[in-house]
Amino acid sequence: MATATMVPLATQTLGSAAASITFSSIPGTYTDLRLVLTGTTSAGDYLTLQFNGDTGTNYSATGLEGTGTVAQSGSSTSASSITPQNATQTSTTVPVTLTGDFSSYAGGTNKSSLFAFSGDTNGAGSVRLTVGLWRSTSAITSIKIFLTGASNFSTGTIATLWGI
Amino acid sequence: MPIAGIIASSISGHLTTSNFYQIQQLSPSAVSTVTFSSIPATYKSLQVRFNLVWSVANGNGTPKIQFNGDTASNYGYHYLYGDGSTAAASGAVTQPSILPMGAQGITYPLVGIVDVIDYANANKNKVTKSLTGFNNNTATGEIRVASGLWLNTAAITSLTVLATIGTYTGTITLYGSN
């Protein structure tokens, strides 16, 4: 019989506004990780991620996005985080959704991840697919999600981390 | 008053509650082909997740996937991709495989997730959905979402991941879900 997997490791439901959400002490016993986040923010802003507290310029990304009027692609190099979002800011009233798949997160290679972002504010919106790179061979033991404009995640924002 | 941050720590000892099963995990090293064979028909869908580094950098459409050892021109695909500067779409018919990705490199992993829906149904042609990506900290990465078609109504019992250029090293895992 095959081994059952895809295990919810932790869920955070914000009871009050917070500047960031961090999953730490992530065990290295799975092959991949999956993050699912949905929430609102105190101001229009952009979600971004860092691993293991690394604030250096060790991140990059390539994105594909549809805004409702155009399809476009962009990239970042030597950035201080992965920002899987471009055209549509987060909203104070309408939740955005982000999923992230962190491949071979505990292995000894550099870390590539896949993201899907969706946001719709009934007039503006976007969907974006992103591949992100963290140039580090360390196992991912913590994931920090925050906002580039230093606003806050609002009460009720939910984030779940799964092991696969 | 907002707090500085929320941290969940000491993550351990959780119960397995999903209907998502690991069927087999392979760790290829410098090979051009791996095959998952004798795939049981007991799931509703299959998912392949891979993390692969290539022996050569190239942008010419590898890895590829074939089913049941069929190397004939019974496959088709369509895709939408972004390469960091341009968003575009394309497709092809009568191909010898489906095409999850179009670029890969020698240092940073190409990653992908391929879903094969209703793979054990013996009365319909088989379709796939894939999301793949590669970034090497330059402007030459790629993110791609694709459909794949295998014009065959047979149940899928084997799945081959092959490189048409170079060899690959990494991890490929096959999952079944109900």
Proportion of β residues of chain A? Answer: over 45%
Mean pLDDT of chain B, to the nearest integer, reads: 90
Biggest sheet, spatial arrangement of strands of chain B:
2-12-4-8-9-10-6-7
Q: Helicity of chain B, in percent?
A: under 10%
What is the mean predicted local confidence, pLDDT of chain A? 95
**Would you tell me the structural class of the helices and strands of chain B?**
mainly beta
Which outline of chain B best applies? Answer: globular
Oligomer: heterodimer
The secondary structure category of chain A is: mainly beta
Q: Largest sheet of chain B, if any?
A: 8 strands, antiparallel
Biggest sheet, spatial arrangement of strands of chain A: 2-12-4-8-9-10-6-7
Query: What is the radius of gyration of chain B?
Result: 18 Å
Main beta sheet strand tally, sense and closure of chain A: 8 strands, antiparallel
Q: Give the CATH level 1 class of chain B.
A: Mainly Beta
Tell me what the structure shows.
The complex is a heterodimer of chains A (164) and B (178). With 164 residues, chain A is mostly beta strands. Chain A has a single domain (7-163), classed as Jelly Rolls (Sandwich), CATH 2.60.120. Helices cover 0% and strands 49% of the residues of chain A. Chain A is built from no helices and twelve strands. In chain A, the strands form two sheets. In chain A, strands 2-12-4-8-9-10-6-7 form an eight-stranded antiparallel β-sheet, with no helix packed on it. In chain A, strands 3-11-5 form a three-stranded antiparallel β-sheet, with no helix packed on it. In chain A, strand 6 and strand 7 (71-79) form a beta hairpin. By secondary structure, chain B is an all-beta fold. Chain B has strands at residues 6-8, 20-26, 33-36, 45-54, 64-67, 75-82, 87-95, 110-117, 126-134, 142-150, 159-162, 168-177. In chain B, strands 2-12-4-8-9-10-6-7 form an eight-stranded antiparallel β-sheet, with no helix packed on it. In chain B, a hairpin with a 7-residue loop joins strand 9 and strand 10. Chain B is globular and about 45 Å long. The model of chain B has no long low-confidence stretch (mean pLDDT 90).
